[in-house]
Design brief:
- This protein is α/β, with parallel strands linked by helices and 259 residues long.
- It folds into 3 domains: 35 residues; 72 residues, Roll (Ubiquitin-like (UB roll)), CATH 3.10.20; 137 residues, Rossmann fold (3-Layer(aba) Sandwich), CATH 3.40.50.10960.
- It is built from 6 helices and 12 strands.
- Strands 8-9-10-11-12 form a 5-stranded mixed beta sheet, with helices on one face. Strands 6-5-4-7 form a 4-stranded mixed beta sheet, with no helix packed on it. A 3-stranded mixed beta sheet has the order 1-3-2.
- It is elongated and about 110 Å long.
- The model has no long low-confidence stretch (mean pLDDT 78).
């Protein structure tokens, strides 16, 4: 092979390398800058989703209106610009939000997914209603918001100090955390719940208003025992007024016909 042929081949290799290394990236960069200048990469569509228990979804959708404005403010930002927690402004009154994640769809869409902390119960005091979430955060809500919830409602003593309330709420939280989502005695089937220093936990059930006393100790075992009794009564069409488990190994049932 002649020296001239070798030189031509070497020139072709160098030219091809420069074309790949310089020309193509330059064209891509200029195209990118032009698209960026034209607003091609600006977020035009921002939507959000809520991850929450199915039976509480309606309630959380009503609360989500408070964060809708903050999330809509992300429109007009660059697709390439990172989103910081402070940009979403999810603090303060939105204590029900346990976490979030952000998904971007090229070139100008964004989806914000909010993870809601499950609501364990609602408590009322001095005419105000609050939700108590699994993450132990509390948020005041409007009374009409209760229509969307299927959780126990607790009425606190208006004369108790906040420290007493905290002790009671912690006790109720530990109890409610043991309840299943569905079943004869579950989050959805309890109309109200209260704590009595003598009788312990007292439940009022849906839909018939039967009252259940679970006592102070070994509540989990008593809960299992009472669940079996309540299932038997309902399967056999027996209307009970009170189911009392404040006994060592038995459950007392007072029919609705008795005073």
């Amino acid at each position: 092979m002649s020296g001239q042929t070798k030189s031509k081949r070497k020139f072709k290799i160098i030219f091809s390398s420069l074309f790949l290394i310089v020309f193509i990236p330059t064209v891509l960069l200029l195209s990118f800058l032009e698209l960026k200048k034209s607003g091609f990469f600006l977020i035009k569509d921002v939507s959000f989703q809520i991850e929450a228990p199915n039976k509480q979804m309606g309630f959380y959708q009503s609360l989500s209106k408070k964060v809708e404005h903050s999330i809509s403010m992300l429109k007009g930002r660059s697709y390439w610009e990172p989103v910081l927690p402070s940009d979403l402004n999810l603090q303060g009154q939105n204590m029900w939000i346990e976490g979030y994640s952000i998904y971007k769809k090229f070139p100008n869409q964004m989806v914000v997914k909010l993870k809601a902390s499950p609501i364990l119960f609602v408590y009322k005091k001095n005419g105000k209603s609050f939700i108590y979430c699994k993450n132990e955060k509390r948020t005041q809500i409007l009374p009409q918001s209760l229509d969307f919830l299927a959780v126990p409602v607790i009425q606190l003593n208006p004369n108790d100090e906040s420290e007493q309330d905290d002790i009671l709420l912690s006790k109720i939280k530990d109890f409610v955390a043991q309840l299943p989502d569905d079943g004869p005695i579950s989050l959805a089937s309890i109309r109200s719940l209260r704590w009595d220093n003598k009788k312990g936990f007292e439940l009022e059930m849906l839909p018939d208003g039967v009252k259940i006393y679970l006592g102070h100790e070994d509540v989990k075992t008593r809960l299992t025992r009472v669940t079996r009794v309540l299932s038997y009564l309902r399967e056999n069409g027996i209307q009970a007024r009170v189911i009392d488990s404040n006994f060592l190994k038995k459950v007392l049932v007072k029919p609705r016909s008795q005073p």
